[in-house]
Amino acid sequence: MNSNDAERPVATPEDATSAVSAASDAAAAGGERQTRERRAFAALEEQRAARRWRTAVRLGWLLFFVALAWMFYSNGAVPKEPSIAHTAVVEIKGEITSDGEASAAQVVAAMRDALEDSGSRALVLLINSPGGSPVQAGIINDEIARLRAQHGKPIYAVVEESCASAAYYIAAATDRIYVDKASIVGSIGVLMDGFGFTGLMDKLGIERRLLTAGKNKGFLDPFSPQTEAQRAHAQTMLDQIHAQFIAAVKKGRGDRLKEHPDMFSGLFWTGQQSIELGLADAYGTLDSVARDVVHAEDIVDYTRRENVAERLVKRFGAAVGEGAARALRTAPPLR
Predict the structure, then answer these.
(1) DSSP string covering 241-296, please?
(2) Could you read off the pLDDT of 191-216 as tens digits, one per residue?
(3) N or C: which terminus of the chain carries fewer CB neighbours within 10 A?
């Protein structure tokens, strides 16, 4: 036996157990350190994200107020300064609704600006619209008569592709209506549309649970049956609005109308036919009317249009509203 082997200590089971325990303690300490590091990094990242979000919100509000200021100082209105003789134009394009560019508020404000300008010799309503709200059209119709009497300036309508339904309601109030031979004119009628799904629901075994206070409160609900009394009531309303429309056309066009059995049936006509029926007066464009009728070839556009600032404000407002709604949906319920 080697003397060195005799002097070497012999490992005992207790020594092995101690070594394993030490290794386990070291591993546990390392694991805890890694866990603490991960938690620290996560907390730091949350703080950075919160800081970025606060910065974005502040920047958003800053842009919002800048847009508001820009909108107030640049709202698209024409400066009310004395100007040279010109033909004023206000466009009525697209569907006539309460919240669009062809709303009564927008169109009437633009007409007022145009007629108050000392340089304007006449106002041309440049129309390309399939119609829309009879209420909005009725307001504009009334204001045309009032503003014409107030300012003593003629108001003409020039039709591009279409002047139908509520758009013709407006045009009928003007002094003269000019069209292209292929323009679409008329559609003097009123409609109320919708859908009914009661038969389909019966086939699918779906039960509609609608609670109302008042037996007729839900009579336009597409998932509920419509009674004859409700249908008659709706028809009475439509007939009354139709009569108002017809009266406005007859008042505006007077003895120029050559009444046809289908004139007020909702049919529409070409520009050529509309002249033959007295629904329009002559062929003409914006340029030809300004040159040959108004005798003021310079054209100034007074149309109120939604500018970039207004669109930005609306989109920002919509985004804020959507975020608030989402937050409310995800918030824990009150107990």
Answers:
(1) HHHHHHHHHHHHHGGG----TTTTTT-EEEHHHHHHHTSS-EE--HHHIIIIII--
(2) 776 665 566 666 667 766 666 777 77
(3) C
